[in-house]
Amino acid sequence: MRDRKELTDWMDALEFYARDWDDTFGAQTNYFTQEFWYMLIGCVRAHWDGSPLTVSQLAQRMKSGSNRTREERIKRAVDDGYLVKVRDDQDGRAAYVRPTPELEQMVVDHLRRTLDRVQAFLSVPESAK
């Protein structure tokens, strides 16, 4: 069984991650939910991978809510300037969702802060090597 100190350190790191996500969006308390995390991180990741998601695909990234609720979340993120909808260059029918540069920077900053924190929690002191 793992040492409880190691597990409580991990708990602290996870809590830091969650709180940092909330702090990233400041007064935009609607984005504190896990559903927005799945949506926004999914959109950024797909964009970085060069495979942007359609509105329907992005809606499916969310774990709960009716289709209408999911589409409303996407609309809110578009209205708040975190996502943009763009038409497919090929046929113009499919609408893809991409992160705005602002959202990308927010996500990068959040991931860097939390990665640094988790690495610090998981690092082995030099004296223990």
Give a brief description.
This protein is mainly α and 129 residues long.
Computed CA radius of gyration, to the nearest angstrom: 18 Å
How many structural domains?
Answer: 1
Named CATH topology: Arc Repressor Mutant, subunit A
CATH class, named Mainly Alpha
Look at the helices and sheets and give the structural class.
Answer: mainly alpha
Would you identify the regions where 5 or more consecutive residues have pLDDT less than 50?
none
Number of helices: 5
Task: Determine the strand fraction and express it as a percent band.
Answer: 5-15%
Helical residue percent? 55-70%
**Strand count, sense and closure of the main sheet?**
3 strands, antiparallel
**Total strand segments:** 3
Q: Write down the overall mean pLDDT.
A: 87
Task: Identify the quaternary structure here.
Answer: single chain
Measured distance between first and last alpha carbons: 21 Å
Shape: elongated
Q: What order do the SSEs take from the amino end to the carboxyl end, as H and E?
A: HHEHHEEH
Strand order of the largest sheet: 1-3-2
Architecture (CATH level 2) name = Orthogonal Bundle
CATH superfamily: Winged helix-like DNA-binding domain superfamily/Winged helix DNA-binding domain
